[in-house]
Structure of Alpha/beta fold hydrolase:
Amino acid sequence: MKRKKIWRIVRIAMLYGLALAIVLLAVGYFYQSAGNRNDRSVFKPVGKLVDVFGGKMHVYSGGEGDATVVLSAGWGTVNPYVDFYPLIEKLAGRTRYAVVDNFGYGYSDVTDRKRDIDLIVEEMREGLNQAGQKPPYIMVGHSLASLESIRFAQKYPDEVKGIVLIDGGSPEYYAAHRPLTFISHAQRFLVRFGIARALYHFDGFEESLASDRNGLKLLPEKLKEMDRVSSLLIANNKNITDEMRQSRNNAKKVIEGTKPLAVPLIAMTAGSFGKATTDWLNSQKELPLWSKEGKQILVDDANHYIHLYRPDLVAEAILSLEPTNNP
């Protein structure tokens, strides 16, 4: 009899707990929806929106030069313009550049097209063309964008003059690792039900979102706000999630393509202030092998987002591949 009474109390507590959780999630959902309406009023493109395969793609460009430096952000980086801002400052006045927001990122639309690597590079190429950018291109890819940078050179070899990978994973590395889609789903849950929005009110949360992006604290307040708004509006949408889901297959497709490439490739590896893992460092050694003229640069005083910590070194590597800077 006593056991039945205890079980009855436990069931009642569980029901009340479930009811409370549902109420809190509902409140959080409406809190997030209201915040989204306010955020969208200030979420304005900083570059040009162009028509690409039925959707709007955002391209931010500037500068002059014989080649266009194409900047591709890593997986989950919600606002490529903000992410590359320190690097853009170093490139401005020295070369022509274009920051491409792939579908699902930044100010671009979310598309129904699968995040297959060949579709991604096809969209990038069309977006650059529609934005008035012409080859030759120097492809600069951060993290997972190493795949699209290499694949672009495989598919359009006559349009690429060089590649710079910013702590980019090797195709072999991505082909050997299971896609971490659960991270994307968990983060989207926190955003959708207002939990992430509420956490932004706590000091230190913004900097702790990703330890590798602590370089964001060096940015002007206006850009930090742009990053916050972008995170709460588009983080881990279906395109970003599918890109991670397809990463293994995309890497295998790159591996099946041309190797070594006929264009120079510079692989910049973050030493993470002496804390980089051995597995990652070993995989980085494979990247120069993807080019007949490949080399690696180890940047000790930077984490994964090297372009936030040492944009000067990244700009120097890029400009070394500019036709006008070479005899």
